[in-house]
Design a protein that fits this description.
This protein has 476 residues and is mainly alpha-helical. 49% of the residues lie in helices and 2% in strands. The protein is built from 18 helices and four strands. It has a two-stranded parallel sheet with strand order 1-4. Helix 8 packs parallel to helix 12 and helix 10 crosses helix 12. The longest helix is centred in the last third of the chain and has 21 residues.
Length: 476
């Protein structure tokens, strides 16, 4: 098991559902003895109970199996490469590792990526169609020598272009920290082994965010650009590649917690390394304070005003960054935006997500948007923001629950999916959505659906570590 989001494409993400489950639903932490948990996407109660059960030997076989997968992934991350050099699998990762040509106006410290569906205009893939409401350039506007400007083909990814930018490195970095942060919190093995996980995570974070030679600048102006003959304008598309920022920040809090818990042991064992130190945490918080300021710029606000899944994921990131900065006011505004804007705009009274249904692969995008909306709902729920996204319904009957219920019969096979796709739907991405719904609504039918869409990986799933089912009698 490796927690890696290679691209933020729903069609690729649903094939990595186990990863999604682990990354999106990790539970929280208590910073020091008696301190109040400060994680926001993650539910501290669930994780603390799992931690105690693993420590005292009362954990279920499924929980032990899931922890075994997590531990294996963590051990892979701390295993040195043959020659001790940088590795895409083990890092540490940096924006300085990108192979893409940096556009004019950017530095190598800027985050740079190409939109995942963009292709050279002189080499468009078969079946290329524009985004809904868009159009392709007339042939005479394409430079056949350079292939500029590139054109988006909805639903058809360009893996070579993706690999050259910062997106896969950022995803690998973030996934590694999520794995190491969680295993560090749960670790009850030899203290030196547990310290090794903490040290590796700290090194990864310092490399990407803190060390002057390798750190990223706190903006996404050059994320998901479309290559053209002229320098790119400030972009907001890169936010979708940072959609998992909230659980990354919760993973940092887990590291801060376990480093504090093991401080006395480290003092007696100085060779074990420093772990995640107070100065590291201060430097990272300063970085995200600058990133928070960037989210309020005109360019970044363009993402907030997107009507589709991009806007939903912006709210997830907005809430997470604001809460990390102890800005409850902004976080509550982000949650309120879900009930005031996202649900009324995106979901019809019958539960259809009409904007996502216009895409080339509508099932994947409906699932992707539900991942975001349910993540928003859990952030508001676990952070005590006073906004009930799970229970909200408009006067004409639009709600998150209606959108989940609309997908239910298609995911379980009770009805065939009636919308045109360029690829067959995969329903595994609804596994964390259904699990969250089962626990939030206390409704067993959602847990049964979660079992059905992921029956081959239901037992011992990493989700059981962080969001255990409240209905334990369900079997596949």
């Amino acid at each position: 098991l490796a927690v890696l989001f290679l691209v933020d494409d729903p069609l690729m993400m649903v094939s990595r559902v186990v990863v999604v489950c682990l990354v999106l639903l990790v539970a929280g932490t208590a910073a020091a003895a008696g301190a109040t948990p400060t994680t926001h996407l993650y539910n501290f109660t669930a994780l603390s109970e799992v931690k105690q059960a693993l420590a005292d030997g009362t954990a279920s076989a499924s929980t032990k199996k899931a922890y075994g997968h997590l531990l294996h992934a963590a051990l892979q991350l701390v295993t040195p490469t043959a020659n001790g050099s940088w590795s895409m699998k083990t890092g540490p990762w940096s924006v300085m590792n990108k192979s893409i040509e940096v556009p004019r106006g950017a530095s190598r410290h800027d985050y740079v990526s190409i939109g995942i569906y963009n292709h050279p205009c002189n080499n468009l893939p078969k079946g290329c169609k524009p985004y809904p409401g868009g159009h392709l350039l007339p042939p005479q506007d394409c430079d056949n020598t350079t292939g500029l400007p590139w054109e988006p083909c909805d639903g058809i990814t360009n893996p070579d272009a993706i690999a050259e930018g910062d997106s896969p490195r950022h995803s690998a970095m973030q996934g590694a920290v999520d794995t190491l942060g969680l295993v560090s919190f749960l670790c009850n093995e030899d203290p030196a082994a547990c310290a090794g996980f903490e040290n590796k995570a700290a090194d990864i974070i310092r490399t990407w965010f803190i060390n002057n030679a390798t750190k990223m600048l706190p903006n996404l102006y050059f994320g998901q650009i479309k290559p053209a003959a002229t320098p790119p304008s400030p972009s907001h598309g890169g936010f979708i590649e940072w959609s998992q920022t909230t659980q990354f920040l919760d993973s940092v809090i887990l590291l801060q917690t376990v480093t504090a818990e093991r401080a006395a042991w480290r003092e007696l064992n100085p060779s074990a390394g420093p772990g995640w130190q107070a100065q590291d945490d201060a430097a990272l918080r300063e970085w995200f304070a600058e990133f928070d300021a960037y989210t309020k710029t005109k360019a970044a606000q363009g993402e907030r005003h997107m009507d589709n899944n991009h806007g939903s994921w912006f709210d997830v990131t907005w809430q997470g960054v604001a809460l990390f900065a102890d800005n409850v006011t902004d976080a509550r505004q982000g949650a309120e935006e879900v009930v005031k804007v996202r649900i009324p705009t995106q979901i019809l009274p019958n539960g259809t997500q009409w904007i996502e249904l216009e895409r080339a692969n509508p099932a994947g995008y409906c699932i992707y948007n539900l991942m975001a909306l349910t993540a928003n709902a859990d952030i508001a729920r676990f952070s005590g923001l006073g906004v009930d996204i799970w229970g909200f319904e408009t006067d004409d009957g639009r709600s998150l629950r209606k959108a989940i219920d609309f997908m239910l019969p298609f995911a379980t096979g009770a009805k065939p999916w009636p919308y045109k796709q360029i690829e067959a739907p995969s329903w595994k991405g609804l596994f964390p959505v259904f699990r969250r719904a089962a626990n939030a609504y206390q409704e067993i039918s959602y847990e049964q659906a979660a079992c059905k869409v992921n029956k081959d990986e239901y037992d011992g799933n990493p989700l059981d570590l962080v969001e255990p089912p409240i209905f334990t009698s369900v079997t596949c």
